Amino acid sequence: MPDLPPPPALRLSLDTDALAANWRALDAMSGAAQAGAAVKADAYGLGVGRAVPVLRDAGCRRFFVAHWCEVAAVLEHVPADQVCVLHGVTNAAEATYARATGVSPVVNTPLQAAIWQEAGGGPCHLMVDTGINRLGVTPEQLGDQAVAALQVDMLLSHLASADEDSPLNAQQLQRFHEVTPLVRPRSASLANSAGIALGSGYHFDTTRPGIALYGGIVRPELADSIRPVAIVQAMVIQRRSISAGETVGYNATFTASEKIEAATIAIGYADGFLRARGPGNALRWRSLDLPVIGRVSMDMVVVDCSACPDLGVGDYIDIPMDLPLQAALSGLSQYELLTVLGKRLRG
Ligand SMILES: *Cc1c(COP(=O)(O)O)cnc(C)c1O
Questions:
Q1: Residue 1: which pLDDT band, with cuts at 50, 70 and 90?
Q2: What is the average pLDDT score of the chain?
Q3: 15-222: which CATH topology?
Q4: 143 C-alpha to center of ligand 1: Å?
Q5: What are phi and psi of 318, to 5 degrees?
Q6: For the segment 25-43, what is each residue's pLDDT rounded down to a tens digit?
Q7: DSSP assignment, residue 347?
Q8: CATH superfamily of 230-346
């Protein structure tokens, strides 16, 4: 066995300058509040090992993950007291792990509060549900004995519709203002990426941007300051001519109406290039759009490269990751476009 495999036919790179600049822009937009970073789901598919050091060096001091299994990778780069686990402690094993690592849970229910106290307790965070009805104690449950006994470092709530001009935003803000004095936390945090753009009233002490760090534009106010971060490329592995009347791909869903040139690209739905990015979407080479033809396969996709006589095997094609446009073209959300990126890209 040779020591090193050949260069991969698929590559994901990060524009680390853009990632750092996005964090700084969101931190500046957060005014007096400090921007943290949601790095759950392997930093939205981009890789914790690559993203967290960049965010840390840019100045970020709060990192949010969802699961305990995500903690160890983050702790390789930042101290435990900067990491928060959003799902909290659902059982004794998680509480024991939290205590052992020094990572604080975000307590979400009276049961979680009891589990945390049972394990020895200590400072933690608390999520109060102000209207998303997803995760967090209700305002009424703040009177629960175990909840009331918590030493709350940061009080959190999460906005349901911050990416829209919805009356729910002001309603949730109002409820958050009502509950904060009941908890008397050391600090408070409400805004995700879109929430930051809702204005200073939503900022409190810490903001929790995720998608915008990675290039997502979830409100028009972010468009000028947020840059794309993910750069995805895949190799051409075959080039062929297709005669009029021939079909391409599984179930022969594309039929050539004239003779065309086609290139087979080494990326498919197993890599997160989902079938929703099939016909109607395009890949790019030297700024030229190459329309996808036929079904996306597990490991391959075929494009019409008639416009590129120079394109050949071994060339790398750009998989467009300008998130708002690609979301509109594919029907996937900007979040999905990133978080589905597959293992072969992140290896
Ligand atoms: C994922 C998440 C965020 C980040 O949200 P974005 O919309 O990606 O900015 C913030 N807070 C909580 C509780 C989350 O679950």
A1: confident
A2: 97
A3: TIM Barrel (3.20.20)
A4: 26
A5: -85, 130
A6: 999 999 999 999 999 999 9
A7: -
A8: Lyase, Ornithine Decarboxylase; Chain A, domain 1 (2.40.37.10)
Q: Where are the domains of the chain?
A: 15-222, 230-346
Closest to 278 in 3D by CA, of 287, 270, 288, 268: 268
| Per-residue CA distances from 163 to 5, 45, 195, 197 (Å) | 44, 21, 7, 9
For ligand 1, is residue 82 a contact (CB within 6 Å)? no
φ, ψ for residue 22 (rounded to 5)?
Answer: -65, -45
Q: What is the mean pLDDT of residues 4-26?
A: 96
Q: What pTM value is reported for the model?
A: 0.97
Q: Which ranges of 184-340 does DSSP label H, i.e. alpha helix?
A: 193-196, 323-330, 334-339
Catalytic residue among 40, 202, 214, 335: 40
Dihedral in degrees, nearest 10, Cα atoms 82, 86, 90, 91: -20
For the CA of 163, the nearest atom of ligand 1: 7
Q: Specify whether 343 is catalytic.
A: no
Cβ of 193 below 6 Å from ligand 1? yes
Q: Residue 109 — very low, low, confident or very high, per pLDDT cuts 50/70/90?
A: very high
Query: What was the pLDDT predicted at 3?
Result: 83
Catalytic residue chosen out of the listed positions 44, 97, 202, 250: 250
Closest of 283, 292, 277, 268 to residue 327, by C-alpha: 277
Residue 269 is among the residues annotated as catalytic for this protein: no
Question: Nearest Cα to 103, choosing from 126, 132, 118, 81?
Answer: 81
Given the CA of residue 38, which atom of ligand 1 is nearest to it? 4
Would you list which residues are annotated within the binding site for substrate?
134, 298
